[in-house]
Amino acid sequence: MKWIPAFSKRTMFIYFILLFLLYLFYALNTCLVDERKFSLNRFLLKRQYTKYKNAAVRFVSLLGFNVEDNDYKYRRLKKQNLIPVKRLPDALVIGVKKCGTRALLEFLRLHPDVRAAGSEVHFFDKFYHKGFEWYRDKMPPTLEGQITMEKTPSYWVTRTAPKRVQAMNPAVKLLAVVRDPVTRAISDYTQSASKSVSLPRFEDLAVVNISWGGSQAVAASWPPIRLGIYLRPFKRWLKRFNRESLLLISGERLVADPAAEMARVQEFLGLKRVITEKHFYFNSSKGFPCLLKSESRSTPHCLGKTKGRSHPHINPSTLETLREFYKPFNEKFYELCGINFGWP
C-alpha cells in the first residue's frame, strides 16, 4: 500500500516553525556562553537566519500558502521622531495689521498639525540682531510633520523683512490678510482711540486742508492711511519670493465665510482639510465669527473683547474721498496679485 502522509499541511508548517525557533535558541545560547565569539556568531546567525527564512518561504509555498511579496512582505518602517523639538517657522503670517491676522492664526490653531508662537515675536523687524537661535527658542515645540508658524503683521511693511526671511528659508510659506483699505484705516484708528480719549476725530486726521479755499487732500503719510496702500509692500515681497509662495487672504471672506477661506489656507499649507463649518458660529452682536471649540477651550467663545469693536460714525464725504484716493492703488494691486477683492 502506498504510504499516505499522516500530517496535514498546517501541522507540518507548525513543526517546521518550532524547529526553526529551537535552532535560534541554540544559536543565541552559544553566543552568550562564549562572549569572545559573539561578533562572529552574530554574523553567522544573521546568515543562517536569512537562509532559513528563505527556506521557510519556499517550504510554505509548497504547502499551498500564498506568499507573494506584494501580500506578505514585511516593511521596515522608519521610526518617527516622537520627541517635540523647536524649529524655525515653516510659515509666516506677515500682515496686514487690522485685517484679521489674529483671527486667521486662532482659526489655524484648530488644526492638529499646526503649532504657532503664542505672541508676536517681531524677529525680522526688531530683534533680528539676536540671531536665528534666539528666534528658534521662541517657537513652540513640534513633532515631525507638524507646521511651525509665527505671526507678526509689521513684517508686511518692514523693508528689510523680505530679505531676512529669505535668508532663513527661501521655501517658507507666507500668508497675508488684506481688506478694504478704508475699513482697515477706520479699524486702526478705532484701536488707537480706545487707548487715547484725546485723539482727534478720524476725519481730522485722514483728510487735511491744503488751501484757504477749503480744498482738502488725503493725509497719505498718516500710518492708518499709508498701510492701506498694499501695492508697495506686495511688490517688495515679490522681489524675494515667487507669487505661489505668498497667499493673499480676504479679510472680508474670513468673516463672511471662514470655513471656505480656511479651506484655501489649508490647501496652501499642504494640510488635510480639518477646519470646517463645524468649528464656527456667527455672533450677531459682534458681527464676527466665533469658535465652537479651539486648541485651549472646548466651549464656544469669541476671540476677545477687542475683536469686533464698533467703529465710530464717519462723515460720508470723508469716506468717498478716501475711496477715490485708494481706487488707483487697488486696481494696480488687483492686477499684480491676480485677485479682484471687490472693494468699493
Topology (SSEs and partners):
Layout: H1 9-33, H2 38-62, H3 69-72, E1 85-86, E2 91-95, H4 101-108, E3 114-116, H5 132-137, E4 141-142, E5 147-151, H6 161-168, E6 173-178, H7 181-195, H8 202-206, E7 207-209, E8 216-218, H9 223-226, H10 231-238, E9 246-250, H11 251-256, H12 258-268, E10 280-283, E11 288-291, H13 316-337
Parallel strand pairs: 2-5, 2-6, 3-5, 6-9
Antiparallel strand pairs: 1-4, 7-8, 10-11
Helix pairs in contact: 1-2
Structure description:
This protein is of the alpha/beta class and 344 residues long. The protein has two domains: 9-72; 86-337, Rossmann fold (3-Layer(aba) Sandwich). It has helices spanning 9-33, 38-62, 69-72, 101-108, 132-137, 161-168, 181-195, 202-206, 223-226, 231-238, 251-256, 258-268, 316-337, and strands at 85-86, 91-95, 114-116, 141-142, 147-151, 173-178, 207-209, 216-218, 246-250, 280-283, 288-291. A five-stranded parallel beta sheet has the order 3-5-2-6-9. It has a two-stranded antiparallel ribbon with strand order 1-4. The protein has a two-stranded antiparallel ribbon with strand order 7-8. The longest helix has 25 residues, at 9-33.
Summary of the model, kept short:
By secondary structure, the chain is an alpha/beta fold. 43% of the residues lie in helices and 12% in strands. The protein folds into two domains: 9-72; 86-337, P-loop containing nucleotide triphosphate hydrolases (Rossmann fold), CATH 3.40.50.
